Amino acid sequence: METLGPGRRLGIWSQGCGLACAGCMSRHTWDPSGGASRTVSSLLGLWREALARGADGLTVSGGEPLDQPTALEALLAGAVRARAEAVAPGGPAAGREIDILLYTGYEEEEVEADAARSAAVRHADVLVTGRFQVAEPTALAWRGSANQRMRPRTARGRARYQEHLARTESGPRLQMVEGDGDVRLYGVPRRGELAALERRLRRAGIALTGASWRP
């Protein structure tokens, strides 16, 4: 994935979201009984593989990751350890700067007021907070609406993201990947970008069924 954070990244999406923001492009992730169950150890295995292949970072989104705070803390703590091993001398990513970015729809004060959520986010280098507000579009990089805040939490996060905090994007913000019988879109679309994509596909004789951004 190359659309949610700097460089090439491993993306992990959690299943289940009790916030259910209007206009969300990932409604299919709301149902906590949907998706596929994965153990933390299996996800950390994917992360180690990604580090060995040259990943620049890990992005965790959803759904709402902080609706599973205990599992999220275990995942991010393990990701930090795996990164330390990979960037150590002789490791597959020796000497490289690699960050961990976490998205949540909760506000920072809601995170800090909950012990389990607060424990989970301490392992992230950068936190994007705030519910998606469809009426507040933004061109800010890697944010879906103007109210959302990108908050570096570590020295690594500040070093990698300082230049992006106020950076805007004018072009397409989606990456399209063909899956097994479906098409997956990664990124944070600009207002109207999904509708424009559907129009282009229709002109090419392709009709979407089961689009994740429609009820």
UniProtKB/TrEMBL annotation:
Keyword Magnesium among UniProt keywords: no
Keyword Nuclease set for record: no
Domain of life per record: Bacteria
Gene3D superfamilies named among the record's database cross-references: Aldolase class I (3.20.20.70)
Pfam families: Fer4_12 (PF13353)
Database matches in InterPro entries: Aldolase_TIM, rSAM, rSAM_sf
Enzyme class: oxidoreductase
Alphabetized GO MF terms: [formate-C-acetyltransferase]-activating enzyme activity; iron-sulfur cluster binding; metal ion binding
Keywords, alphabetical: Iron, Iron-sulfur, Metal-binding, Oxidoreductase, S-adenosyl-L-methionine
E.C. numbers: 1.97.1.4
Name this protein carries in UniProt: Anaerobic ribonucleoside-triphosphate reductase activating protein
Native species: Streptomyces iranensis
